[in-house]
Amino acid sequence: MLTISQLSVAISVRGIPMWSTPVRAAALLFPGLLAGAFGYGAVNVLYAFRAVPPDVRFTFHTALMRVNGPVVQSLMGLAVLSTLMLALRSRSGSRWVAGTASALTITSFLVTRFGNVPINQHIKAWAVGTPPADYAEILHRWEMFHFLRTGCALAAFVLVIGVVLRAANRDPGDPATRPATAER
Hints:
Strand content: under 5%
Structural class: mainly alpha
Number of strands: 2
Strand order of the largest sheet: 1-2
Radius of gyration: 21 Å
Helix content: over 70%
Distance between the termini: 51 Å
Order of helices and strands: HEEHHHH
Shape: elongated
């Protein structure tokens, strides 16, 4: 059985890691997009929802979730995959930090799947029917789940930034981190 260190050496050429720049780029891109999408929802969409009558919110919420579903699921999968790849390509402490970023992204997925999605199904029914008397409490719970997944996604993104910056400072052989030289 290969260890992570042996696997890391196996996917290098003459000791130079392959794909380090694309892995770092993906690990920045996908968690960043996920944190941005959730952050936009937390800062803008939630407050817009609060400013309209409940029936408008339910209808728009349902339409938004129908469109967001495939996009956010794809972003979550890509964020998990890219942070796992970053963890595999990193060394020592950075590996743990990247692994933590991946765990936070997985947590964001689990909160979404088991917190927000079931409530989305209720909201979908309310859009065409009558909401229960305690609908405001249920919407508050949805918002708390949303803030939790947003915090997890943002923390994951911040951790990835730290890993990538640390690697850039430590890996002068990587063409992406080599200082530019003046041509003569």
